[in-house]
């Protein structure tokens, strides 16, 4: 029984990862890789945040995060603002150009996932949300 469930879990994770890769490829024509997209979406959702917050929230390496932020800075998509309280700390947020790029990218992403979600029956939509909540709990428990 445990072995059979292990195969089901593995197959489900593989399918989910394949779906994420599919989404990444669909968004890739916007010339950002998966982690760049994740960072753009994190800034989109949070507004202004520190590099450390990005690293923690997305579980990314400090050096890798720094390289991505430098690229986004060089393309005038984000700006750095020094903290008033702690001069060692910088916050990043979108420039007007970055806000337009992020909005377009997020809308495309949202349309893609909602199109797929809306193809599911009401029962499957509920199961899908429940499954995502369980995955989120597992991920949160791993962080703690």
What does this structure look like?
With 144 residues, the chain is mainly alpha-helical. It has one domain (1-143): Arc Repressor Mutant, subunit A (Orthogonal Bundle). It has helices spanning 2-28, 34-46, 51-58, 62-74, 96-118, 122-143, and strands at 49-50, 78-82, 90-94. A three-stranded antiparallel beta sheet has the order 1-3-2. A hairpin with a 7-residue loop joins strand 2 and strand 3. Helix 2 (34-46) packs across helix 5. It is globular, with a radius of gyration of 18 Å. This is HTH marR-type domain-containing protein. InterPro entries: HTH_MarR-typ, WH-like_DNA-bd_sf, WH_DNA-bd_sf. GO terms for molecular function: DNA binding; DNA-binding transcription factor activity.
Nutshell version of this structure?
Keywords: DNA-binding, Transcription, Transcription regulation. With 144 residues, this protein is mainly alpha-helical. Helix content is 74%, strand content 8%.
């Amino acid at each position: 029984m445990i072995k059979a469930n292990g195969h089901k879990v593995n197959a489900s994770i593989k399918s989910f990862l394949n779906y994420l890769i599919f989404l990444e490829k669909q968004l890739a024509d916007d010339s950002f890789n998966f982690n760049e997209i994740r960072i753009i979406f994190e800034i989109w959702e949070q507004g202004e945040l520190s590099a450390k917050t990005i690293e923690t929230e997305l579980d990314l390496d400090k050096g890798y995060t720094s390289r991505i932020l430098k690229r986004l800075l060089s393309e005038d998509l984000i700006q750095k603002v020094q903290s008033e309280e702690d001069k060692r700390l910088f916050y990043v947020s979108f420039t007007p150009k970055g806000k337009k790029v992020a909005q377009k990218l997020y809308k495309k992403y949202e349309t893609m996932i909602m199109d797929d979600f809306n193809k599911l029956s009401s029962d499957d939509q509920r199961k899908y949300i429940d499954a995502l909540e369980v995955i989120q709990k597992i991920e949160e428990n791993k962080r703690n």
